[in-house]
Structures are given as structure tokens and as C-alpha cells.
Specification:
Blueprint: H1 8-13, H2 17-38, H3 52-60, H4 65-87, H5 92-118, H6 121-130, H7 134-156, H8 162-183, H9 185-196
Helix pairs in contact: 2-5, 4-7, 4-8, 5-6, 6-9, 7-8
Length: 199
């Protein structure tokens, strides 16, 4: 008996939710790049944070850990709690896709801005702004998306316990590590990068 061929569109539907989020993030990233080249270039001088005065001021000031870490922790944990709440609703797939799309668009727009304003060194500056803390935030979001997508299956199979709650606990842990890195290592690395690139 010959096997029936699966239609490409049907294969796209069966793609896991995490891969769909990744595809949506990539599409939004490209959309951010496109929008910058369409309308963002005319507002290039309106971004105060990347002005020469702001960058020179950033290299001179010291950001105290005791003030920066609690602020970042409150901000990131609040966002994580919002994602947890949205994950309990029926529209969780829509909200998570919207969240991934917004970050993809923002990073695409920001990367284009850095490359256009600072030429080739702008790409290094862009990655310097994201490392090393942003990957931990991405891991946290990926764990939450997988957890809520598989939650019904876990409940149906009565596999509720420590292993069931582990992704949520790890999400909080990754956010905590990300906040620690963003308030300690990230400012130092960005300052060193600005000095090396002579920006």
C-alpha cells in the first residue's frame, strides 16, 4: 500500500508552536529592517540615545548595581508575570506571537539603525547591546511558550508535578540571570566596545 504524500501546507500547519514563533520573529525582524529603510532613515537624527553626546556621557558615568539591578528585576519579572497570565488565556498563541513579533521588529529596526549610522562597526555595536543578557531572556520566553503549548497534554496525561512546573521555574531563573548580567557585565562590555570601535 502506497503512502499518501503529505501536502507542504499541511506540513506547515503541523510545525511546532515554538518553530512558528521563531519564523514569526524572523519575519518581523526583516519587516523592521524594511520599515527602517522606508521611513526610519529620515528620523535618524531624532534618536537621542545614539547621539554623540549621549554615547560620550554613557562612557563616563558609572551605573550602580544597587540601583540598576532592582529596577531591571522589577521590570523583567513584571513582563514575565504578564506572559504567564496571558499564557493562561485562550488567546495565548496570539499574544505570544505578538510578543515575538514586536521584539523581532524592534531588533530588526535597531540593527538597521546601527549599521546605517555607524557603518560596519554598527553591527558589532548592535550585538554588543544584546550580549550577554538577551539570550537568557529568549530562553525564558521559549520555555514559557513550549510549556503553555504542551500544558493541556501534560494535564490530560496526569503528569502534574515537579517536572511539569520545571519550565516555569527555569524561566524565572533565566530572567534572574539575565538581569544580573544586564546590570553588571553588559554595561562594562558595551563601554569597552565603544572605546574599541572609537564611537
Amino acid at each position: 500500500m502506497s503512502k499518501r504524500r503529505s501536502h507542504p501546507f499541511r506540513q506547515l500547519i503541523t510545525i511546532s508552536f515554538s518553530k512558528k514563533l521563531l519564523l514569526f520573529f524572523g519575519f518581523s525582524f526583516l519587516l523592521g529592517i524594511l520599515l527602517f529603510h522606508l521611513i526610519g532613515r529620515r528620523y535618524l537624527n531624532d534618536f537621542i540615545f545614539f547621539s554623540d553626546i549621549a554615547l560620550s556621557h554613557f562612557k563616563e558615568i558609572s551605573l550602580p548595581f544597587t540601583s540598576l539591578f532592582p529596577y531591571l528585576l522589577k521590570l523583567r519579572m513584571s513582563m514575565l508575570l504578564v506572559l504567564l497570565f496571558l499564557g493562561c488565556t485562550r488567546l495565548k498563541h496570539f499574544f505570544y506571537a505578538l510578543f515575538a513579533g514586536w521584539f523581532g521588529f524592534s531588533y530588526g529596526f535597531l540593527s538597521s539603525f546601527c549599521c546605517f549610522k555607524f557603518s560596519l562597526v554598527g553591527s558589532l555595536l548592535f550585538f554588543g547591546m544584546l550580549l550577554p543578557h538577551v539570550p537568557f531572556y529568549f530562553f525564558s520566553f521559549a520555555l514559557l511558550s513550549c510549556w503553555f503549548h504542551e500544558k493541556k497534554k501534560s494535564i490530560a496525561s496526569h503528569s502534574i508535578g515537579i517536572l511539569f512546573l520545571l519550565p516555569a521555574v527555569l524561566s524565572f531563573f533565566f530572567v534572574l540571570v539575565g538581569c544580573l548580567l544586564e546590570s553588571t557585565a553588559s554595561p562594562l562590555l558595551l563601554k569597552k566596545l565603544l572605546e574599541l570601535l572609537s564611537i
